[in-house]
Amino acid sequence: MAHQIYPAIADGILGGGVYALMAVGLTLIFGVLDIINVAQGILVIVGGYLSYVLSVHLHIDLFLGLLITIPAMFVLGLVIHTAVIRPLRGSERTSMSLLACFAVAIILEGALYWIFGPNVVTLKASYINSSFALGGFYINDIYVYCFILALVLVAAIYLLLYRSRFGRGVRATMQDATAARLIGIDVNRVAAITFGIGVAVTAAGGMAYGATSGGFNPNSGYDLISRLLAIIILGGLGSIGGALVAAVFMITVESLVDIWSPNWAIVVFYAALVIVLTVRPSGLFGRKAVRAQ
Amino acid sequence: MTSSAVRSPAHRAAGAPGRRTLLTSAGLVVLLAVFAIFPLVYSNPLATTYGFDALIFIAAASAWNIFSGYSGYLSLGHAVFFGSGMYTVAIGAQDWHLTGDAVFALLPLAAVVAAAIAVPVGLVALRVRRHTFVVITIAIFFIFQLMAFNFSFTGGTSGIDAPILNWAPGTYNDPFYYLAMVIAAVTLALSGLIRRSRFGLHLRAIRDDEDRARSLGVRPMRVKLGALVVSALITGLVGGLWYYFIGAVHPQSAFDPLFDLQLALMGFFGGLGTVFGPALGALILEPAQQWLTVQFTNDYLSEILLGAVFLLVILFLPRGVIPTLGERITAWRSRSRDRSVSETTADGGAAPEAAPPDLTAPGTSAGAPASRTAGRREGTPS
Hints:
The structure holds 2 protein chains of 2 kinds.
Chain A: H1 2-33, H2 40-57, H3 62-85, H4 93-116, E1 131-134, E2 137-140, H5 141-162, H6 165-175, H7 177-182, H8 187-212, H9 220-235, H10 240-260, H11 265-279, H12 288-292
Antiparallel strand pairs in A: 1-2
Helix pairs in contact in A: 1-5, 1-8, 1-9, 1-10, 2-3, 2-4, 2-8, 2-9, 3-8, 5-6, 5-8, 6-8, 9-10, 9-11, 10-11
Chain B: H1 2-15, H2 19-41, H3 45-71, H4 79-95, H5 107-125, H6 130-150, E1 160-161, H7 173-196, H8 198-208, H9 210-215, H10 220-246, E2 248-249, H11 251-254, H12 257-270, H13 277-296, H14 299-316, H15 321-344, H16 367-378
Antiparallel strand pairs in B: 1-2
């Protein structure tokens, strides 16, 4: 049994890092804009297809290609924010924004189907199928590379939030948007850039997902977004640390259940979410205020 | 302000029993007659298929609205009830070896099972609000889809085929059509009754401010759960009927995320929380979508268009067709009334509906306050 459990835990932690990166983008957007970007799942897939196009047609290395895809997804995020999120006003803004993001997701999904078709594509590189031995079992190189990538990007976001002037503005807006506006923070600019950053991480997330999951198609967005939503709700909406812990925890649990029954692994995922919320409606690390609103 | 908002429907019902109610009911009778005659005029199976589709979605969108529209809790998981209805009928017909017309006896069972599923779902999901509620409904939806894939009694990926009905091909759709019409009509009537009832008032009080409603004596959990059960009952019934019409059930078609989105789109398009809004949305959007799919023979394009229409509705008609139209009519009426009042009381000071003189100071537009108060008093048409 042990020979299955340790690799499963290792896979869970390494894979959890990638989910943590995507979930941080989602929870950051929620914290600042008070909206849930349900298009995050399909945006990850868009990022995956961008990496695919770059590597297949232009023969650019997957990790090198991120230098192109991350800025591209950042711009796409700014466009979505300007065209769809920012015009929403009024008391129904939060529920409207959720539906607007859903509509964006549907449009993107249809477009991806149209361009790439429903066939599953895989990302290819020399290091994807290589592995190394560690204490009696094998770990894929790509899992480690993607985990390091996720660590670097999460650390970059952390530094941006806690060690820069812009990050102070973001955190002030997360605490109280009205007060932040009153002390002279350009809340609209903060919101736009935060949305852009939240979407930009999907470029790296999509590459990592495509390289580690063994293939994706436009339909994979649903699978991703449902996991990501479960992660950020479990971690407590708007809590970055909570998202990190919840991502690693959930993916590890899924990886462990997968030994026993691959079909039911994902159900355990949602069941854990439902149970946690029944006991603690604000999530593991959530602020009480989130529920009271 | 809250008290006037809460009092307004009863006030209106008592105050204007005459022309408006008469006109509305006459219009409804005519509409029902049009729907009843439709298959006789357009007997082409393609036309009746469009009609059946529209009626199914009128019922489903109105049922969704009874819960989500009135309570303000947006559910993106109603496919759970729709799919449960489909599977209930499918499994029942399979296990009890029902054939032919006899299978229709299972439709009430579909409704009951969906309603029974709504109770635990509601008890878990309704503990949280806003975003978290929406996400929980999505999560529960995925749990059901995965269960349909993984359990053996659902037939897994291959699903379950419906018993074959030996009906004449020419009029095959007609019984489905009329059954759907009855369900849609009953759902709309029920929706109207709920909106006018004390129960509906409680629901809308919860939508406006749940904590205040609780402090005023409303029991939120009981009311929300009641609405969810009623909504699930109808959705399950509709799902059962849909199963026979389609002739098979699969996990993807029974628990389809697009179904959830369509209901929400229809509700928002017509007007969330109005009686006829979601039905109007269904009547316009469902045939339009079917037509586009046939026209372009491209599922992906119709998916993109669905998303685009949804986006345009949210951005430009955020309150829906019926409330926006109602506001325009109210504003136009009060303007013409103002004119007639100011003509008759030429020197009699300010007209009652017009803004008080002190509000017409520079910087405050004179028209806005008047029309806004008028909108608040007479707006939110049913």
